[in-house]
Amino acid sequence: MRITFANARVWRYVMGSISKFVEVGLMIVNDDGLTFKAMDPSRVALVEFNIPKESFDTFELEGEVKVAINVEDLGKILRSSEKDDRISLEVSENSLTIELERKGIPRMFVIPLHTGSEVEAIPELSLDLRNKFKVAGTTLYEGISSIEDLGDVLTFNIGEDHLSLVVKSDLGDAEIVFDKESGMLLEFEVNDPNTSVSYGVEYLSYVKQPIKLSETVDILLSPEMPCKLVLNLPQGAKMNYYVAPRVE
Amino acid sequence: MRIEEHLCIRCRGGRGLCGLTYCPVIVSSVVRDLSLRIGSEVYGSSPPSVFVGRYGYPYVRVGPATPPELGDTYVYDTPEFWLGYSLNDVLSFRYSLIRGTYITTIDNVNDKYVCNLQELVLTLKPVDIEMRFEKPPKPKVLLDEYLPPQGPSAPLRNLRICSNPVSDKRIEKVFYDTDLRAFEGVVRLYRDGVPVSAIQRLLSVGGLGSKNFRRLVPTRWSITAVDAIISQHLRNQIRNYPPVSNYLLFIRSFMDNLFIGILAPRTWSFEWMEAWFPGSTWNRFGGDVEVEGDYEGFRGRSEYPDIGGCYYAARLASTEALLRMKRQATVILWREIYEGFNIPIGVWFVRENLRAMFNDKPKSFTSINEVLNYLRVNKITRIPLDVWVRKSKLMNVLLRQEVLDRFKR
Predict the structure, then answer these.
(1) How many helices (H) and strands (E) does chain B have?
(2) ipTM of the complex
(3) pLDDT tens across B242-256, in order?
(4) Global pTM?
(5) Smallest Cβ distance to B400: which of A21, A46, A248?
(6) Which residues of chain B does A44 touch, with a Cβ-Cβ cutoff of 8 Å?
(7) B156 with B260, same domain?
(8) Which residues of A are less than 8 Å from B406 in CB distance?
């Protein structure tokens, strides 16, 4: 198998953030494209990174490939990638070769494939999330950045025509409102107005960098349910990120 | 803290009427007696004991310590045994250790004098030494949050090793392996059964690490470094084990300290919290109980915890216990320190007490609420349990954080 993707920075940000809370992930490459799934050990957050086949410059495949990869190692290698790098992945029997290429000069890295059973237990989730908000990636990034240090719990308050992010702490409360008037909310669909749902701030902070890189982010919520963030990344890449709720 | 005179007359060091965990009269008389007995030289059996100060780093005061007596003094510098003694005994051991000090730079590990110190710490048996001082040691003692109490000291003029120390083969092998990194050296010694206190001594005198990176390490730092290294190594092992099957509760009450350990059936994470009562060591002048703590998740932490080196001492005891069980867990440790405990004694007190606590049989529960009910009904803690629950990050996670498995297809 050999695949080439034109924007290594997407990989760098995505793997860099996943490596903050996951050690090992499962990479599946088939005729539909590439999927990378991983779950944090405390089973609170789950990530699915998808790139459709059409988004790859090169896509050479002989049958489905399913391998476990140490995300920390991969993240470290990708730290050396830059904006105009291309990334190629090649899987052999027991190793993954990563090639970063800039201005025709390739750098090759080889990491062993992971041989453990941790990744087998990544569940398929069944969620009926009835409220959807679309915001620009940079807007959500700024929102999370400005309140993440103030407390441990982030509450999404679902309004009829807006979404607010609230963090409470001993110091006081902080609130950011996304609405259409201010232009911070691009689209919304609300079925459970005047409800709220809370999540650990740290889990949202983990994915700040890929959020910043995303063109838009869909925030899908329902009371007492996990949240789903759909990060619409450049070159057709997409990252679905799920976080289990907190019961306050 | 002011002690009323009539209490001492009625107590005479035996009944603890002043509420302290040691007798200030007995301990100060040990120091006073010592100052009468020592002049400008001392001859005795070093446990072995060495000390590297941190003030002036990278210029540090380094030197051996010995009591002015011959015989088996091994226990004087081996915290692993100290829980079996009263605090008076431990303080007496420590205050009778007379230190010679010599100022050198941290990279001067091949200096003849430092080599003598390295020779001392290669053995686990007392070594007879003779120290001549520039002037007689003053009867002054050093109390520190991290270090065991230290006795009188004076600038050293000359050090002579009088007996022939028999090196411990395990320590010797690591000491002479100059390609072995310090981390690996610490882990190898620990795996070979060398006491943690001996590894800390060896690290502090520049006896560990690859050849060009050996340094003198202030004792205070080496204690924390060794606790951190070993517990990190053990943590990496236990994270591969399945979680404990129930909520386990450990309780230990010792010398005006209460230790509570909760092991929850989740993946590894760790929290260490302390509640200092007014009048206790680090809350002498406050009016309220001060609760502080720090924690780490499954991946550990990269920043030094605000609460200090006791965090790593506690983590070491916890990972040792989990390794014995071949299980991982979310570990929550709470410690209450009451008024009578008002002397800085060192992190060994936390490490050894928690080791002892985890050796006891735990109580088993099926939910975290049952654990909290048990603590509440039996009034185990002196501060309201709600304060602990509110301040504990990991307890909040256990009580409030859902997991995604509940939403599986």
Answers:
(1) 13, 12
(2) 0.92
(3) 899 899 999 999 999
(4) 0.83
(5) A248
(6) 401-404
(7) no
(8) 244
